[in-house]
Amino acid sequence: QVRFVESGGDLVQPGGSLRLSCAASQEIFDYYTVAWFRQFPGRERRWVAKINLEEVTTYAESVKGRFTISRDNANNTAYLQMNDLRPEDTADYYCNVIPYRGDFWGQGTRVTVSS
User: Fold this and answer.
1) Which residue intervals of the chain are DSSP H helices?
2) Is the pLDDT of residue 110 over 70?
3) How many CB atoms lie within 10 A of CB 100?
4) What is the DSSP letter of 65?
C-alpha cells in the first residue's frame, strides 16, 4: 500500500512555526510531483504547495512567502516548513501526488493556530 504517512502537526501560537513531514514509498519519490494539501472543516482538500522531480516548487497565494516545501528522495520524505502561522492556517494537512490519487491519502496531521 502506497499511502502517505503525515506527522508534525501541533497547536501553535500565531506567528509561530511548524515543520510537517510525510513519508511514502520509494516509487512515489522516484516518479511523482508531491504536494501538501489542507482541508478546512466542511471543505474539500486543496493543495497549498507542490514540488516536482526537478524540485521546482509552486505555492498557493495564501501561503506564498510563509511556507516552504522540500523533498528528500533518498529518505522518501517530503516536508512543509510553515512560518508566520496564522489562525486561518488551522486545518488538517495531507500529502499526495499531483494529480492526487485517492488511494494515496494518509491520515493527515492537524495544525491548530491559536493563542
Assistant:
1) 26-31
2) yes
3) 15
4) T
Over pLDDT 90: what percentage of the chain?
Answer: 95
- C-alpha angle 65-49-70 in degrees, rounded to nearest 5: 85
Please tell me the distance from the alpha carbon of residue 104 to that of residue 66, in angstroms, as a whole number.
26
What is the widest separation between alpha-carbon atoms in the chain?
A: 40
Tens of pLDDT, residue by residue over 57-93, are 999 999 999 999 999 999 999 999 999 999 999 999 9
Mean pLDDT score, 30-55: 96
- Please give the distance of CA 91 from its chain centroid, rounded to a whole number: 11
Question: How far apart are the C-alpha atoms of 98 and 50, rounded to whole Å?
Answer: 8
Spatial separation of the C-alpha atoms in residues 16 and 13, rounded to whole Å: 5
Which set of grid coordinates corresponds to residue 39? 482541508
Q: Is the peptide bond before 99 cis (omega within 30 degrees of 0)?
A: yes
What does pLDDT average to over the chain?
96
- Beta bridge partner(s), residue 97: 34
